[in-house]
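hey so u asked for the seq, here:
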Amino acid sequence: MSKLRAKQKAQRRKLIEIAAKNLFVEKGFEMASIEEIATLAMVSPATVYNYYGSKDELLLAIVALGEVGVAEKDSEFTLRAASENPIDLVTEVIMSNVHDTISTLSRELWCNVIAYIATTSDKTVAPRYIDTIAGGLGTAIFHVLESCQKQGKINSKVDVDYLSAFLTRNERIQFLNFIYLKDMSITDLDNSIRADVTFILSPLLK
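ran it, structure tokens below
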């Protein structure tokens, strides 16, 4: 594929995803159709199906956009583990991902996403969704904790693989609280996550 064609394809994807996000917020995931998304994006329905396969895959593609940032900053976070406090750094990793996620999908759209995941009869959707939203974050947390352990900041007997997965699951619960509790601010979420990370990591630090 030529650079021009690749650029055009990326631009069409961006238009489709913006159109889909707008329609999902306006009409809800179930009511928005591929045909309406295609019309708004100024492409054919066939193009949408060709790029994503289904509306479900389009939804997960939009969700995945919010996870790109933490993966891109993974190496930076890992390097900083040598000189920074583990609690502060892990909290920053998590909140960086939260900010990326919220900037990609509004609270209202997240409600639609969660409702779809919870009610779909397709048993493959939930595992793919969980892998999408937790994979990059879990990996970044693991690399930070692994580096901290090598630096002697975390007890050598701690299973940092399990610990990173536990912190990632905890963050997802906190994030759901933020989505559902409309009075909860991003500052409230930050404070809550910091309190949890402090509670979990403090006994494990040397």
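The chain has a mean pLDDT of 91. DSSP finds eleven helices and no strands in the chain.
lmk if thats what u needed
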